[in-house]
Amino acid sequence: MKIMTESVHFTADQKLIQFIENKLQKLERVYERIIDIHVILKLESHQAVKDKIVEVQVHVPGGNIFARESSKAFETSFELAMAAIKRQTIKFKMKSK
Asked: N- to C-terminal Cα distance for the chain?
């Protein structure tokens, strides 16, 4: 499983990238046929309350799984997106059986 992390409008801290990669490694326990995962971290420039956006796209044989979440912190946004990805991955796994 290959994990790609991309940050838009800022340089991501190594600690944040390590946090994301550690959490994503656990996703392989749910579905072992994951090809790769692409994470995009975006920092919105306007003064909105929810300005840190995380998009997670998981490539699996036969489809893609996608989640996008935003909040005040990247860690929170990622946790929300990860919960959605996990639910969708389980659903995809059940459908593919």
From this structure: 21
Distance of CA 42 to the CA centre of its chain: 12
With H, G, I as helix, E, B as strand and everything else as coil, classify residue 26.
coil
pLDDT of residue 91: 95
pLDDT over threshold 60, residue 8: yes
Whole-number average pLDDT of the chain: 92
Determine the CATH number of domain 2-95.
3.30.160.100
* Distance from C-alpha of 87 to C-alpha of 30, rounded to nearest angstrom: 10
Contact 51, 73 (CB under 8 A): no
Nearest to 65 by CA among 38, 97, 94, 26: 38
